[in-house]
Amino acid sequence: MGDELRIGIIGFDTSHVPAFTKLLNDPRDPYYVPGAKVVCGYPSFSPDVESSYTRVEEFKQEMVNTWRVELVDSVEEVVARCDAVLLESVDGRRHLEEARPVIAARKPLYIDKPLAASYDEAAEIYRLAREVDCPVFSSSSLRFDANMVAIKNDPELGAVLGCDAFSPATLEPTNPGLFWYGVHGCEILYTFMGQGCQRVRCYSKAGADVVVGIWADGRLGTLRGTRRGAHEYGATVFGAGRVAQALRSRDVPLYAPLLREIMAFFRGGPPPVDPEETLEIMAFMQAALVSGQEWREVDLDEVR
Fold first, then answer.
1. What is the CATH number of the domain that holds 210?
2. Which of 205, 221, 250, 266 makes an SS bond possible with 213, Cβ 3.0 to 4.6 Å?
3. Cα 52–99–74 angle (5° rounding)?
4. For 23-30, what is the mean pLDDT?
5. Do 80 and 182 belong to one domain?
6. Contact (CB, 8 A) for 219 and 238
7. Residues 187 and 287 in one domain
8. How far apart are CA 188 and CA 195, in angstroms?
């Protein structure tokens, strides 16, 4: 890799695409992330997802006219022209197939949330990556939000005894349950609780999902995914030393801290989130989906 990494983007159907590109390609931006430039992209989209097919043309025009990004006709062309890949497709169902050529070429790969639209496909992505030793990382930007990081690193917090996380959890039938948008709240929950959830119980109603997770050491973590009323991203964290509360930072742009982590990863650093933790989040969401549908407690091992 050269001094400035050549970044390729797959999927042009999310606002993350121009937002990430501006932070990487515009040195005048106060939160500019140096060391890489988006040079090409494959503008794939999902014809059966309204928020995908209705926005792709707008984002294509911005990428070409504002940022001079070259459009190519396939994932394989993106792989051939770049050093590392941002897989930004808003539809998690596309992630496995779009990731395959990138993984086969062993190019460092960031997969935007959710890693996939089901636990099985998420596990297959990581299996393929392990097989050829391809670096793969996936995370919501909320994990690296300035306020969340400040609480996590607060020495006065002490050991985390529990966490109540919350985020919007709008629904999309093609990416069921929490996979579509509730993944943000799941990432916040796991930022503080870490791995070790054994079973979940999901209470799913029209206006919200409330998921109670039971960790192996007896701790309880909850996620409230909202669909009515005011929406916010945040958590109440119950520590041995104090109780801390945080909402998403309004001072630092949400994507800048994430992109700094991605660039360090693309440069050969370890994945900022352990793949096993990401897979457990996928299992948590899959188990919550089954629990909400069948109105019972579900063990994470049941869906793995």
1. 3.30.360.10
2. 221
3. 70
4. 97
5. no
6. no
7. yes
8. 12
Note whether 220 and 162 are same-domain residues: yes
Virtual CA dihedral for 277, 279, 285, 290, nearest 10 degrees?
-130
- Looking at the fold, whether 178 and 293 belong to one and the same domain comes out as yes
CATH assignment at residue 35: 3.40.50.720
Q: Which domain holds residue 38?
A: 5-139+253-271
Q: Are 128 and 256 in contact (CB under 8 A)?
A: no
32-49 burial string, b = 16+ CB within 10 Å, else e?
A: ebebbebbbbbbbbbeeb
Angle between helix 275-294 and helix 183-193 axes, rounded to 10 deg: 120
Using the structure block, give the residue that is written with the tokens 């940022």: 67
Give pLDDT, residue 217: 97
User: Which pLDDT score, from 0 to 100, does residue 289 have?
Assistant: 97
pTM score: 0.96
Q: Are 161 and 296 in contact (CB under 8 A)?
A: no
pLDDT digits (tens, 9 = 90+) for 214-229: 999 999 999 999 999 9
Answer whether residue 3 shows pLDDT above 90: no
Q: How far apart are CA 180 and CA 228, in angstroms?
A: 16
The Cα–Cα gap between 250 and 243 comes to 21
For 288, half-sphere exposure in the C-beta direction (CA atoms, 13 angstrom radius) is 33
Note the pLDDT of residue 253: 86
Predicted pLDDT of residue 1: 52
Q: Summarize pLDDT for 31-49 with one digit per residue, the tens.
A: 999 999 999 999 999 999 9
| Residues 6+ away with beta carbon under 8 Å from 207 | 226, 227, 228, 229
